[in-house]
Amino acid sequence: MTNIGVFDTGLGGLTVLTKLVKSKKANYFYFGDTLRVPYGNRPKDEIFDFSCDIVDFLEKFDIDYYVIACNTISVTCLNLLEEKYKKTFIPITAGGIRGSKSYPGDLLVLATKATVDSHFYKDNIEGDGKRVFEVAGYNLVDLIENNQITSPKMDKSLDEYLNLANKNQIPNILLGCTHFPLIKNEIGKKLTYEANIIDPADYILDKIEANNNDLKIKIFLSKKSNIAENIIQSLIKFDYSLTYVDFI
Ligand code: DGL
What are the helix (H) ranges across the chain? Predict the structure, then answer.
């Protein structure tokens, strides 16, 4: 029996969970901090404090290892979490690096402010003629969490954030935030040329070790959200339980 903790600042990590549950049977415990999302514009010490709250909650379930289904937490807190909890944490960013390196040519990383400010992807991918451009999609997480995936605001924001890609026809776009697979179609429509849109989740599946006979999915959110319920229903095609927790 393998218990896997999966967490994100909100709904974004559900795009990762969706792929995990299709790929391996295990007991999955997902936590999304829908109360305090977004984290991406917050300072590093606050992101770490909030991440510890999440892991402290999940630790009750006898977790064998964690998947950090959030780029922002991965780039700011991976080492701190490993040090504090002495457990394995698989960061989604490992998939981001692998996915990006598997496509030749320049790359645009669309991510949160915290991820862009860390230059994690640029530092780990750029070289050998491959250039990495980083763009912070400041308000995208907020718009997604607030049910504005198809809205004039989303339209306007994506025009702005994808301007650099369109101007330079950058061949690869990395979804450097786990919320962004939820707007992959909207991103695709805004691009004026054909690009590879890379989802890091596709490149961590082989790191998941589990051989349970059954699949169990428990989802915990820190604030009731109708959009969350709709997204979970549309993404997760297996039985699951959803619990809202009073968290702080
Ligand atoms: N889903 C998170 C990520 O991958 C971001 C969220 C946030 O800003 O809260 O970076």
Answer: 13-23, 44-59, 71-85, 92-101, 113-118, 120-125, 140-145, 152-161, 163-168, 184-190, 226-235
52 is a catalytic site residue: no
- pTM of this prediction exceeds 0.90: yes
Q: What is the pLDDT of residue 225?
A: 86
Instruction: State residue 91's pLDDT score.
Output: 98
Q: Which atom of ligand 1 has the smallest separation from the CA of 179?
A: 1
Q: Which of 14, 30, 35, 71 to mutate to test the pocket of ligand 1 (most atoms within 8 A of CB)?
A: 71
> Using an 8 Å Cβ cutoff, are 223 and 15 in contact?
no
Residues in the chain, pLDDT under 50? none
* Spatial contact of 77 and 181, defined as CB atoms under 8 Å apart: no
Residues at CB less than 6 angstroms from ligand 1: 8-10, 12, 37-40, 70-72, 112, 115, 141, 177-179
Matching residue, tokens 């109360």: 35
Residue nearest to atom 9 of ligand 1 (CA): 38
Q: Which of 70, 78, 108, 231 is catalytic?
A: 70
Eight-class DSSP state of 40: T
Tens of pLDDT along 37-86?
A: 999 999 999 999 999 999 999 999 999 999 999 999 999 999 999 999 99
Neighbour-count burial for 13-41, b at 16+ CB within 10 Å, e otherwise: bbbbbbbbbeebebbbbbbbbbbbbbbbe
